[in-house]
């Protein structure tokens, strides 16, 4: 059985993949080059037999980590005064 990345080398599959990317990009109002890596990561996660729920949890954790990193880089303490 071929891997997901090997399958994407088939021109028909590549075109179908990009059609989905363009559709999602239109719906969320982002450029396709922003949507494509996220869509690819979603497909790879799901082909690894993860559930959609697992993917949503991983995506939320990734967003939280990204926010914490940007807050740390700006020098402000996000939790100051909460304790």
From TrEMBL:
Species in which this protein is naturally found: Ralstonia insidiosa
Domain of life of the source: Bacteria
Protein name as catalogued: DUF3562 domain-containing protein
InterPro entries per the UniProt record, alphabetical: DUF3562
């Amino acid at each position: 059985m071929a891997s997901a990345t090997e399958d994407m080398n088939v021109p028909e599959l590549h075109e179908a993949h990009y059609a989905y990317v363009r559709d999602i990009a239109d719906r969320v109002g982002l450029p396709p080059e922003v949507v494509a890596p996220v869509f690819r990561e979603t497909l790879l996660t799901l082909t690894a037999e993860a559930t959609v729920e697992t993917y949503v949890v991983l995506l939320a954790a990734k967003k939280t980590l990204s926010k914490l990193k940007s807050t740390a880089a700006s020098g402000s303490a996000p939790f100051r005064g909460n304790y």
